[in-house]
Amino acid sequence: MTLGREAASNVPSPFSEREIIMSSSDTTSSEAPASATPLLSGQARSDAEQRLAALPLPVEKLVEYITTHAVDRVYDRISDKEARRFRMLTAGMTLAGVLGLGTVAWIAGLFVDQRVSASTAQATKSLSERLQFEADYQQLVGLALSLENGKSFSTTDRDSVMQLLRAIGKSRFYETRPGFAAYLDRVIDSFFAADLHKELTELDALFRPALASTSRAVAAMTSYFGQAVFGSPLPLDRLEEETAALAYYTTAARTTGWPELYILWNLLFEFQRNGFARSASTDELIAAREQLGTADRQSFERYVFLLRDPTRYMAIPTDEGKRIAERLAKLIAIYPQLEPQNEVSDDRLDEALQNALGGSRADESGGEGSK
């Protein structure tokens, strides 16, 4: 989760996207799927001829009408390469008007098989994929709300959510679902609080543009990659993917209402990049901090307060958390103004802020993740 500022917490109602919404573009075609056999045969042809005979319009006129309009509609859709074959088909259909309706149906069957089968199959596949997306999406909604409202979640819940999100990411229908980002935010918050590194990295690969579009997810992903880089024992040249992701999300933070996160994590990164020493870059970022508004300045100080001691946001401090605290202490020794001016006690830190930095760790061996 992110800081408890109202501007960053305006997410859609959890129930606003529970219904299945099908747009007109999703129901691609009303044409029946084509088969590999003629449309009419045997008794079916006889029954069809009897029904046609009962119509007020003479059969010959009806055949002529169907033939003419079918030709007109298909002619516009065939390629130049197929034009000669189509003209031969037109001649065959004209002859079929003389030979009988059964022959017309036989030729029409071949025509549909060859011309409509591909488009019908594609339409059927598209509709099937959309329906599967809707089913996966509704399951995700329920699980996301369960993760958010519960104090812990099992590895089974984690795996179920990941399976659904992999399928949703592959379908890409989520790009037209306005409510999707709100539920993805909830998953990110819960996984970040449980420190699920592997899952968060995978979700970043699947949904990076979607994550960067919402203030709530940006705050979590910026802090996640910030901690992964600043708290890593590895040199930066072995953290290329992580540093690239951090640059991406800090830039997004600057444009989605988190200037303090942009400054904080760039400051820590530049400090790390320069061998944990003062530089022109860190001086510039310290000066930028002074330009923050009151709310953003207070938010910056709260983040610093938490990062100074991993027990303030981790039930069980990790080596990463300890490393961040040690390195931050070195930075504060160089820039004493980074120390919060007023003591920030634990009861002033709301749950949203603690979740924005990550909570206690999930048991990867099959236990539960606490938030």
Compose a concise summary of this entry.
The chain is mainly alpha-helical and 371 residues long. It is built from 15 helices and two strands.
Give a structural overview.
With 371 residues, the chain is mainly α. The protein has three domains: 43-115, no CATH class; 125-211, no CATH class; 216-364. 63% of the residues lie in helices and 2% in strands. The chain contains 15 helices and two strands. It has helices spanning 43-53, 59-75, 83-99, 101-115, 117-149, 155-171, 180-193, 197-211, 215-230, 240-255, 259-273, 280-289, 294-308, 319-334, 351-357, and strands at residues 152-154, 368-370. The chain has a two-stranded antiparallel ribbon with strand order 1-2.
Helix content percent band: 55-70%
- As a percent range, the share of strand residues is under 5%
**Structural class by sheet pairing and helices:** mainly alpha
For the record, give the distance between the C-alpha atoms at the N and C termini, rounded to a whole number. 10 Å
- Residue stretches low in confidence (pLDDT < 50, at least 5 long) are 1-41, 77-81, 345-352, 359-368
- Average predicted confidence as pLDDT: 75
Topology:
Blueprint: H1 43-53, H2 59-75, H3 83-99, H4 101-115, H5 117-149, E1 152-154, H6 155-171, H7 180-193, H8 197-211, H9 215-230, H10 240-255, H11 259-273, H12 280-289, H13 294-308, H14 319-334, H15 351-357, E2 368-370
Antiparallel strand pairs: 1-2
